[in-house]
Amino acid sequence: MPNRYFRNVFPDNTNLNYSYYVIWRNKAISLTKWIMKNASSSSSNDLYTGTTGIAYMFYRLATSNTYDTRMSTSYLNKAVEVLNLKEYKFNEKKSSQFICGDAGINAVYAAIYHQIGDEKTSEIYLENFKKGLTICKPIDFHMAGGDEYFVGRAGYLFGVLWLEKVFAKKIIADQDIVELCSTIVESGRRYSKQKKSMFPLMYSYYNKEYLGAAHGLCTILQVLISFPQFIHKEPQAKQDIKTCIDMLISLQTANGNFPCTMNEIGPKQRSEQDELVHWCHGAPGIFYLLAKAYLVFNERSYLECCLKCGDLVWNKGLLKKGPGLCHGVAGNGYVFLLLYRLTHEVKYLNRAMKFAEFIFIEECIQKSRTPDHPYSLYEGFAGTVCFLEDLVSPDNANFPFLDVF
Ligand SMILES: [Zn+2]
């Protein structure tokens, strides 16, 4: 038996059983009750493991358009209730940090208060979010690495993209967006030159050159190509970004995975036994960059890389680390939901449903590790609920905050 994942014995077919939708819906509803009961035990209030991540889950249910008005209102009330569990004091220093800091907290508070119609309160949090821009503008604002997704500029910009969808308006002026994207590119060029990297843009986080979604190159490149106002204005930057994407693809292994860091290339490659097939490290996170690149550059080879990621995740993605998004079964299941949206092939919907099914079978429950934060959005069941809900309406499915459409 492999160390890190359960062997996948499910049939890979197209015989969808739609009666499962009722099951997922009921599982999601009972999980939300259990999460609500335990939400106060969260040790922080950020998106990753804290209360704001749980409130986001309730907000997502409330706005999914798949519940009646009574249920939607009840979920929205729960979202506010969860926000009120922890006292929140704005911390300007952390105001640009999205997944693990105040930018994410302020964005979700703004969205929830907007949804309940309290525009005055919503505006306060939106203004707090905007303050993050000034904090992360200086190129060296975070010495350990200020460009990545969790606490860096890439995360902040994903926050902007999300808020623009929520409020259906511009949140940050184009000029500032272009400036921030240019800073990311400049930061990558400087680091690459200094370290003589083969990539025209390279970044490090606490001295490691990560490639995956958590702290690595892929989410940084993904956010840059998500702003047409930037890539159309800066053709040289666009070229460097595309070169990086193509070089990253050249590192895809025969089985479809990617090294976690630049240190793991060539002779230092992880053994198959040790390779990580997580959203945070490995193909399941780099997949979103490839999908976005396919939509932006319209090159078939990018889609083919996505399909390879999908086959890898099908074979090695039933992780033993629990049901979460970051390094768990639900996070990996999201790969199939996006493949379904990209290809409209029912086979991928079946794969997503099998991953959902696996979360609740005895083998998984008995032999999986319990996450440190079992109710949270990224490590725990709040993320699982988002995944189960997206199975019910797969045409709109999207990994939290990383929608490529
Ligand atoms: Zn992880």
Topology summary:
Blueprint: H1 20-38, H2 51-62, H3 69-83, H4 102-115, H5 119-136, H6 153-167, H7 174-195, H8 217-225, H9 228-231, H10 235-249, H11 283-297, H12 300-316, H13 329-343, H14 346-359, H15 362-367, H16 381-392
The structure holds zinc ion.
Zinc ion binds next to loops.
Structure description:
The protein is an all-alpha fold and 405 residues long. Helix content is 55%, strand content 0%. Helix 1 (20-38) packs antiparallel against helix 16 (381-392) and helix 8 (217-225) runs parallel beside helix 11 (283-297). The radius of gyration is 20 Å and the shape is globular. Zinc ion binds at residues 214, 278, 280, 326-327. Zinc ion (ZN) is lined by residues 214, 278, 280, 326-327. Keywords: Metal-binding, Zinc.
